[in-house]
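On to my pick:
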Amino acid sequence: MCIRDSPWRETVAAVEARISPSDVIFIDDLAFPAFAYYFRGDAATHPWTIENLDAPAAAAPTAHRLWLVTQHHQLRYLLDLYPHLDDTGLIWSATWPNIEVRAYDPAQLDPEALTPQAEIPPWMLGLPSPLDEACLRP
């Protein structure tokens, strides 16, 4: 889960150049520490975890734009859990090595698209998050 090899400075700069204060950004919890380190924007940011996969759907009605920032990892890729999420409502996207960012217009999204549909393998539920309290201790 090494995130230091991914170009987070460039990724965050591209997002900051396009966001507005009424946007909502969900960041894969595997990437949240790196994203937060560089992020200086004024949009709301939230960790996107296996435990809160429904959070983007809950935030969509009040968001101007909904951003999804994912870390490509050999064991987990959160967007795989949303098979109905396609280019409908997509207003911007970009990829970098091991990173994908998508921005959606929530008004154009089918609510079904933000509902996780894929079966979550039990082993995936046990993957440690860098946001877990045990990982934050020195």
